[in-house]
Amino acid sequence: MKDLITIAVKAAREAGGMLLENADTVKDVTVKSDRSLVTDFDTRAEKIVVDIIKSTFPGHGIICEEGSTDASDGEYLWIIDPLDGTHNYIRGIPHWGVSIGIVHKEEFAAGIVFMPPDDALYVSEKGSGAFKNDQPIHVSRRSEMSTCTLSYDSCIREDPVLKPKILAELGQRVFNIRMFGASTSLLTLVAEGKMDIAVEFDDKSWDFSAGASLVLEAGGAFTDFHGNPASYRHEKYIASNGLVHDEVCTIITANI
User: Fold this and answer.
1) In which domain, by residue range, is 174 found?
2) For the chain, what percent of residues have pLDDT higher than 70?
3) Which end of the chain has less neighbouring CB within 10 Å, N or C?
């Protein structure tokens, strides 16, 4: 696994460096069918990451947001978002990064997230913990919902009835709420204990696979809305410090 992580870090840093260098020059923006945005730099970053991985591990499977997918039947699957938080990137909001998750036999085996605006590199490996710039990170120890900070799904428009309803219920229990528009931001913040809960309804595997590994290895919980372990195949999830997890699940399932 160490060899895989070394390559993932190299790929994330190279792609992230290119993105940071060009952050103020975005011109080519396309609106996809789901109303999400993609720039020419998304595709350039994806090519950098995929080329590095394929040159070293040609037999591994790859899933990427922008389409560079290789559905191999090998034990290892790389799940890549070359630029998570594209809208933030376009608008100059410093919440974006490169996300590389590694799945081994259906389990989150490692997560690498590089946040170029802060030069922050997050790395996790199953059974070995989670780290930010080589320093161990851990989820928070807040056990009372009333003291917790919650990150909530920012795409309210995709379900303007259910999402606001659940948001209102959670909002009565937590201290405050944030919406980042980038899973790299919200999941790394949960992993390092700066936030306590994250709730997402419509994330894709490339959005959260790396972050899920980070949260789990930092001592947190990552499940579906019913409290069952979530895999990269899920789209709805709760990530938390684990201490308030059951309460969040109860609130959500009572309203869906």
Assistant:
1) 145-253
2) 94
3) C
The secondary structure of 71-135 as a DSSP string is: ---SSEEEEEEEEE-HHHHHHT-S--EEEEEEEETTEEEEEEEEEGGGTEEEEEETTTEEEETTE
- Residues 89, 203 share a domain: no
The pLDDT tens digits of the residues spanning 62-71 come to 999 877 666 6
Taking 90 as the threshold, does the pLDDT of residue 254 lie above it?
A: yes
83 with 98: CB under 8 angstroms?
Answer: yes
AA letter at 136: P
- Torsion angle of alpha carbons 136, 206, 163, 222, nearest 10°? -40
**How many angstroms separate the Cα of 45 from the Cα of each of 214, 229, 243?**
22, 31, 37
pTM of this prediction exceeds 0.85: yes
Model confidence pLDDT, tens digit, residues 159-173? 999 999 999 999 999
Cα(79)–Cα(101) distance, integer angstroms: 5
Domain check: are 223 and 120 in the same one? no
Average pLDDT over the chain, rounded to an integer? 93
